[in-house]
């Protein structure tokens, strides 16, 4: 038994260590959460993964980032860094960064299929709104008809 003298102005922080749950194999759950390559992965990716995991001891989150990108995406990333170095030498770095931002925005706008409508009515034919859109006209119409 411990005798603890505590003043009213003192703070006491207590942490309790939980007991391990019996009958549950926690290692299996952790193994499921680790990054794993699909079975259909090529042999060179499997060798690279093995090297990065076993020899270099890279964390799973980094391995996930490395193997989630396609070869085309990696080429674009490397090309972007090479061009960034060139533009830095020519003192055009800020323009390069802004240009990259604008290109990223415009290339990711997407294309609408025929018959698709935009969520913004100004982009639709006859300014047609999506069903269920709540705006000032709908509220005014509901108040005047007594439905609000």
UniProtKB/TrEMBL annotation:
Kindly list the residue ranges recorded as spanning the membrane: 61-86, 92-110
Asked if the record carries the keyword Transmembrane helix, the reply is yes
The residue ranges of the SAYSvFN domain are: 77-143
Q: Which Pfam families match?
A: SAYSvFN (PF10260)
Q: Give UniProt keywords alphabetically.
A: Membrane, Transmembrane, Transmembrane helix
PANTHER family from the xrefs? SAYSVFN DOMAIN-CONTAINING PROTEIN 1 (PTHR13527)
Name assigned to this protein: SAYSvFN domain-containing protein
Q: What is the organism field in this record? A: Gossypium hirsutum
